[in-house]
Every structure is written in C-alpha cells, then in structure tokens.
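Many introductory courses stop at the sequence. We go one step further.
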Amino acid sequence: MGLSPLYSAWYLSVLAHSQRLLGEYDEAIAAYKTSIERSPRNISAHIGLAIAYADVGRLDEARSAAGEVLGINPRFSVSKYATALTYKNSEYAERALNALRNVGLPQ
C-alpha cells in the first residue's frame, strides 16, 4: 500500500480488520471509512465498521453501519456470516457475532 496509491479498497478492509483485532479502534474505523469511500458497496468494510463501532460503544453509528449492510444485502444474517469466519480463536468470532446481533442485524 505504501508503494502504490492505486491499491484496492479491499486492502484497507484487511488492514482495518487487523487493527480492530489489535484493539486499535480509531485506526480501524478510519481505515474502514476510507475503504467505504473508495468502494461504497464493500460489504465487508460495512460489517467491520459496525463491529468496530459496537466494540467501542458507539451504538448509533454501529446501527447505521448495520443498516448499510442490509442496504447492500437485504438477506444478510449473522448466522450466514458466522459460517464464513475462520478464526482460530473462537473468542474473536463470538465477539464479532455478538456485536452484529447487538446492533440489530438479523440472526
């Protein structure tokens, strides 16, 4: 990313995800937002943003991000999303899934 300003918005989502798992929430939120600016229908960035906001207690913003998720995919469900998670540490998955449930995404 440092070598090319033309990198994919997806790279920012991966960076933000890593930052969120490290507890670097401000950096993660900024990276998710930039990813969304570059690719507004990047559902993984909207999902990650909802989780990051929920993790820091910014629930109104988390609900707004969750609404964007449903706007992109009205059939989104937490249970379907859970099948795509591949964390070795199940605690990471449970924390993310609980955050999504808590901001109103359907089970």
